[in-house]
Amino acid sequence: MPPTPNPPLHSQTPADLLTPSLAFSPQMLWLLLLTLPCLGGSVPGNPEPGVGRELVGIVGGCDVSARRYPWQVSLRFYSMEKGLWEHICGGSLIHPEWVLTAAHCLEPEELEACAFRVQVGQLRLYEDDQPTKVVEIVRHPRYNKSLSAQGGADIALLKLDAPVPLSELVHPVSLPPASLDVPSGKTCWVTGWGDIGRGEPLPWPLSLREVRVKVRSNVLCNQIYCRRFPSNHTEPSEQLIKDDMLCAGDGNHGSCLGDTGGPLVCRWNCTWVQVGVVSWGTFCGHSDVPGVYARVMSYMSWIHQHVRPFPGAAGAFT
To answer: Which GO annotations describe the biological process of this protein (predicted)?
Structure first.
């Protein structure tokens, strides 16, 4: 398997979130990190301008109105250093009580559901924050934490502690039938907060951004990755892009590190349908390398094992 220049993980590890002034042993610090968000602490207020800008990004995109993507959510993890629930990944509301995101956003597995929060209905990060508690994490059983996103099955569900009130700013996205085939060349959209280019943080006020991308065939995508990132363990015929993955965009338009977990949506029969979950990729804003997404169609039966279909999820507020 070839090395991936940009790993699909958060730009900060749990150890990075610890303030160095704390005089605890590493074991005590780790235990504190795992349990602190679960002890019922108060939700922090809005941060100062510039806080949290380094974690996510959309390359080549534009600012949008929140009502265009009312299913977009921000996945949060408590930063002891900054004293706030910090954005780490994107996600999508697929039911008033359920969020779809990437499994690798929820590592390490030792973290409990109460270590995370979900913010819905937000256009600018940290503006009028009211994060919702997560009470259950359902990772796909085939997800391999040692392989991370590149191993496939990079998909997970989060159950919220209560249904979120729906409005023109908060509304579930439609999910596709398992039989849906997204053709190469189909125009779709990906959304998120953060870097607008490699090393270029999203400027304040940290507004949600969108970018239009075209779907690329898995065969072509596999050829691109094998050619650009060869290794001693990569044969020309090796399938790096698995059947449960979908490719879209190029180096100049697409998702970036930390957008992971967010939705890739396409317009079908006047309805927005989520076909992908931002999973992994390579250099943001460089060359013709597309981003790689978890193919939602491959996991519809698994999703329905846990989440009842929500008949109102038709992208009504567009």
So the answer is: proteolysis
- How far apart CA 204 and CA 124 sit, in angstroms, is 9
Q: What is the DSSP letter of 214?
A: E
pLDDT at 227: 86
Tell me: pLDDT of 114 over 50.
yes
Pairwise CA distance, residues 96 & 65, whole Å: 21
Nearest 5°: CA angle at 169, between 167 and 171?
65
Q: Beta-strand (E) ranges in 26-148?
A: 58-59, 62-63, 72-79, 84-95, 98-101, 116-120, 132-139
In this prediction, residue 65 carries a pLDDT of 52
Q: Which residues have CB under 8 Å from 223's CB, separation 6+?
A: none
DSSP 256-280: -TT-TT-EEEEEETTEEEEEEEEEE
Tens digits of residue pLDDT in 134-170: 999 999 999 999 999 999 999 999 999 999 999 999 9
Looking at domain 26-36+56-311, does it have CATH number 2.40.10.10?
Answer: yes
CA distance 269 to 108: 39
- pTM higher than 0.85, yes or no? no
Q: Which residues pair with 187 in a beta bridge?
A: 214
Q: What is the mean pLDDT of residues 107-127?
A: 93
> Residues of 112-139 as b/e, b for ≥16 C-beta within 10 angstroms?
ebbbbbbbbbbbebbeebebbbbeebbb
How far apart (Å, rounded) are the C-alpha atoms in residues 131 and 114?
12
Listed by start position, the domains of the chain span 26-36+56-311
Give the sign of the dihedral formed by CA 13, CA 294, CA 163, CA 211. Answer: positive
Tell me the CA distances in angstroms from 236 to 88, 222, 240, one per residue in order. 35, 9, 10
